[in-house]
């Protein structure tokens, strides 16, 4: 039998096939990607060779990155779940994140003033957590009822714009209610100071943040994977119409999704407040975008992906400026750490839009 | 059917409490609609209560007038009740620890300065009265209703815009008497309000009765006279546009220039979002690029180059167009939400870079670049707002003309096809890459032009002027005005940029109102205030398919 080559069989000249396969813009993008990668590697090598940071520095950066990353991961879970069920980005999730700790601040302040915080720190913290989670959940549910439910079947641009509008509305409502100043969370004494684990020093509150976030993520994941409600939510993410046929109440499941996302965001908010000590009406905007980046990084619609993406983003943000920007000779590299996050977002969206762990959803048509 | 009234009443009452706690009521109370009678803050509460009553009336299941009235009454009672609750709680508990606007002044305002007990009674009475009134209004015949709404609305608008109107009438000698008669100090006089009310009712009554006959008689004129009429009105428009800054005076010309800049920006984003459907949240980046190009090229502070504004302008536009293409290339494959976030990321990257110390030697860092010279032709320098207005007017006209011609060209149709469905557009033979890149490039070019004018108008550029808020502002503008519609951009700019400048009290709550307006528009009227005809059909087609097809069959479209 004669071996017949593919191009002979299909009768398309090879140059045309190559042109269809790779376009000029793709080549440009690959070049840009390669350039960025080269810069990163060069910068890292330069920093490590210069040896300005000791291993203790790196360890501190990594722990800080882990803590911040876990917060992003918790918020990202809200984004990813809403995207899974509604196929839209809940731009206002950053404000859901903000509303919890901002409201709980007043509870925390009054607990502090009455001395209850010092006497019973664990119970006080629990109360603060509960208030925060309740508020965030309330805002999330209101958002769904008022802004998103009427627009379930609207063309794709409309719910997006509504979400943006709702985001600003919430920010400025909270500004009007609570004021535009920065409010400082009271210091919780048992969380101050370092602790030593096996020769390494970590600050206590960082350990608490990492531990609490891990616990919450685990419970959320178990809820989604192992319970009936979780299964119903996953069914709704797969295919809404078929889920209705299976007897699942779509509206209730969507509300549950928002509730879970809200609770996670509220908890993340308190952890954020414990770490950064300040709450402010605008504090939800940037973490919201970063959490969305994390969700996309890990694969949107994919809950373990959101967790992974969050932690990865936190680490890169924390370690990155010192690791490669410093080596490239950039002054004050920490100013550009947000730029690193956004660049990573753009790169992920260009080169691997399905994220690290891949989208678990069916391929979305625009 | 009680439930509807109760539910709507609860929602309306919560909104009123929120308005009070957010501080809007207190801030608005400084401006009086009718001097010493009713302030803007009280009008706000009144309108909210009336709207609640109207909604309750509309949503009543039973159609008997009695039940409609009862429903609106009930909702008004609840609204008043919730406000009374707020006042009571406020008198018992120190709400100010949490809600910073729950000051004693607010409560005095809410109780009409009569103390808690009497205040609660008054709140209940006013709430019930206003809602029942609007319930009655909804029951009355359509003519009466429309006339009343227009007259009341007109009086309220006159009160709101008193500064504007005062400034317009002031320089014209005898006409300035109007000012004295209608609004001497803060708010309309009672006689001014009443006479305005009567005037507007008369006009709208007359218009309703014979407006349609006037329209049809206009249409029945021979085409030659129609053309003449059109040319005359066009001429009038041109004259008004050219002489506007002289009529309006300094402050209002300044407002006009800001509105003009936003119109220019809006026209650019209109091409990207409205025509091509590419949601670009990083639009402010091109604005920044245009401004910084002019700054770097003309400012003696950095000293690299020393060009004049006119020499730097083409560079700014070209840089803008090139960066538009550069932004467009990576995002070619992205759609919808991803595109929005990616462009948002780009916008933020540009802002962070411009703000950073890393690029300070070239871009000025956090202090920005100052001492940018103003544009000048010969010996005339464009220094005052009135003169800058003409520059911006030329820019807007240019941009408007280009948009208008592009919209009906092949490229414009290609954009709209891409907006509707990219895959089908590609299947129809449209080159997606070219279309998208051209959209980004054109939009970026307009934005860079606007940035260049902005830089020289202000004389300096600071990184803080280029936050993502501006992108969102412009997006709100074109959405509220009508996506894809060129007059819509102008309407949106006047509404969302002009009005807050005029009503200074708004300034603090600007974005709150933007956000609420955006959500409300999307739910109620997604095609915007002055929509493109096609868009309106598209967006309402899902609601009434049978009626659409029947009417199109009848009219033979």
Explain what this protein looks like in three dimensions:
The complex is a heterodimer of chains A (366) and B (557). Chain A is mainly alpha-helical. Chain A is 73% helix and 3% strand. In chain A, helix 4 packs antiparallel against helix 12. The longest helix of chain A has 32 residues. Chain B contains 24 helices and four strands. The longest helix of chain B has 53 residues. The C terminus of chain B is likely disordered. The chains are: A mainly alpha (366), B mainly alpha (557). The interface between A and B is large, with 58 and 60 residues.
Which stretches of chain A of 5+ consecutive residues score pLDDT under 50?
361-366
Instruction: Give the integer mean of the pLDDT values of chain B.
Output: 81
How would a textbook summarize the main sheet of chain A? 2 strands, antiparallel
CATH topology of the largest domain in chain B: ABC transporter involved in vitamin B12 uptake, BtuC
- The overall number of domains of chain A is 1
H/E series of chain B = HHEEHHHHHHHHHHHHHEEHHHHHHHHH
Question: Between the first and last Cα atoms of chain B, what is the distance in angstroms?
Answer: 43 Å
Strand content of chain B: under 5%
The major sheet of chain B is characterized as: 2 strands, antiparallel
**Largest interface pair:** A-B, 58 and 60 residues
User: Would you tell me the structural class of the helices and strands of chain A?
Assistant: mainly alpha
Name the assembly state. heterodimer
SS-based class of chain B: mainly alpha
Number of strands of chain B: 4
CATH topology of chain A: ABC transporter involved in vitamin B12 uptake, BtuC
Q: How many H/I helical runs of chain A?
A: 15
